[in-house]
């Protein structure tokens, strides 16, 4: 191994990943978490919070395309979007690509994440913070969804893992608040961990969400730096039909958008709802 500085992630004690640090761009404790942004020869710039990788320049497109486009194309007429978390700006960039969207609110607990990701991860937000439809709220997401009078068509919980400030975004209080501020035919999606290693997270979210939503399930994608297999995204709505579109429906909506993505396409949209049997068995316990 070269004499380069090595950064180790051990989200799962005893099994982790490492990155050699070519250059540290920023490393400090914010009011809420330890924030580091560094350069790596393979994955580009990497941002981690409290020792857990949040995003890398090389593979962020998979995660952000899957969490933004699946609910918005499934909804079909989404005009008002709420992003919880999302401080690196990648989710906002993908949501802004939808011309039919008229209003975007992002509720991020840590202003420093927004500030330093704008500076050191400029390709994530790619100018979307200047979008006139955008509104930033610095607040704990659970407080916002339980207090706001605003209503939304899609809520995207682009949160950290359920440790530290992210813990509140995996609670019944948060899920109930999201159900409260969704419009009719609204859709909630959330980052819900790598189910092979964090299966309990998926089971717990599924059980809690089922108390407030008619239709609860997951969809999935493999994102290299969320190591350990496929990442599961929680899905919840009051209308099961929103999860069971025909391929032709999604194809016509995608074509009409004029978008070309690097990971997302209509076949991936439908196929991502197919879940491994071990997860299906765990969810049906
Ligand atoms: N892609 C990442 C993942 O899958 O783990 C998430 C990226 S994004 C950086 C996560 C954001 O959630 C961070 O900016 C963090 O500050 C924010 N966050 C954590 N807890 C929060 C809370 N309770 N309310 C609002 N934002 C929160």
From TrEMBL:
Domain PABS, residue spans: 5-238
GO MF, any single term: spermidine synthase activity
List of residues binding S-methyl-5'-thioadenosine: 33, 108, 140-141, 165
Catalytic activities: S-adenosyl 3-(methylsulfanyl)propylamine + putrescine = S-methyl-5'-thioadenosine + spermidine + H(+)
Gene3D superfamilies named in the record: Spermidine synthase, tetramerisation domain (2.30.140.10), Vaccinia Virus protein VP39 (3.40.50.150)
Pathway membership, UniProt: Amine and polyamine biosynthesis; spermidine biosynthesis; spermidine from putrescine: step 1/1
Keyword Cytoplasm included in the entry's annotation: yes
Database matches in InterPro entries: PABS (IPR030374), PABS_CS (IPR030373), SAM-dependent_MTases_sf (IPR029063), Spermi_synthase (IPR001045), Spermidine_synt_N (IPR035246), Spermidine_synt_N_sf (IPR037163)
GO biological process entries: spermidine biosynthetic process
Keywords for the protein's UniProt record, in alphabetical order: Cytoplasm, Polyamine biosynthesis, Spermidine biosynthesis, Transferase
Pfam families, alphabetized: Spermine_synt_N, Spermine_synth
Active site: 158 (proton acceptor)
Domain of life of the source: Bacteria
NCBIfam families: MFS_SpdSyn, PRK00811.1, speE
Record text on subunit structure and interactions: Homodimer or homotetramer.
Name of protein: Polyamine aminopropyltransferase
Source organism phylogeny: Bacteria, Pseudomonadati, Pseudomonadota, Gammaproteobacteria, Enterobacterales
């Amino acid at each position: 191994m070269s004499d380069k500085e090595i950064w180790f992630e051990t989200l799962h004690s005893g099994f982790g990943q490492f990155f050699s640090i070519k250059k540290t761009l920023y490393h400090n404790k914010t009011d809420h978490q330890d924030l580091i942004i560094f350069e790596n020869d393979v994955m580009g710039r990497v941002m981690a919070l409290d020792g857990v990788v949040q995003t890398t320049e090389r593979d962020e497109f998979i995660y952000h395309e899957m969490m933004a486009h699946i609910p918005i194309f499934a909804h079909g007429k989404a005009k008002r979007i709420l992003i919880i978390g999302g401080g690196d700006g990648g989710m906002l960039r993908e949501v802004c690509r939808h011309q039919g969207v008229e209003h975007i609110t992002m509720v991020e607990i840590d202003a420093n994440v927004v500030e330093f990701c704008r500076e050191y991860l400029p390709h994530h937000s790619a100018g979307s913070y200047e979008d006139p439809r955008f509104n930033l709220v610095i607040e704990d997401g659970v407080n916002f969804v339980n207090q706001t009078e605003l209503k939304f068509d899609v809520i995207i919980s682009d949160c950290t893992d359920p440790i530290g400030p992210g813990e509140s975004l995996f609670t019944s209080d948060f899920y109930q608040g999201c159900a409260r501020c969704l419009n009719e035919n609204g859709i909630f999606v959330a980052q819900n961990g790598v189910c092979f290693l964090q299966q309990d997270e998926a089971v717990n979210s599924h059980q809690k969400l089922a108390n407030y939503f008619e239709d609860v399930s997951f969809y999935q994608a493999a994102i290299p730096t969320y190591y350990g297999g496929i990442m599961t995204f929680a899905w919840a709505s009051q209308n099961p039909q929103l999860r069971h579109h025909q391929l032709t429906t999604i194809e016509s909506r995608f074509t009409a958008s004029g978008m070309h993505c690097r990971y997302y396409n209509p076949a991936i949209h439908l196929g991502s709802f197919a879940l491994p049997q071990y997860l299906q068995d765990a969810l049906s316990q």
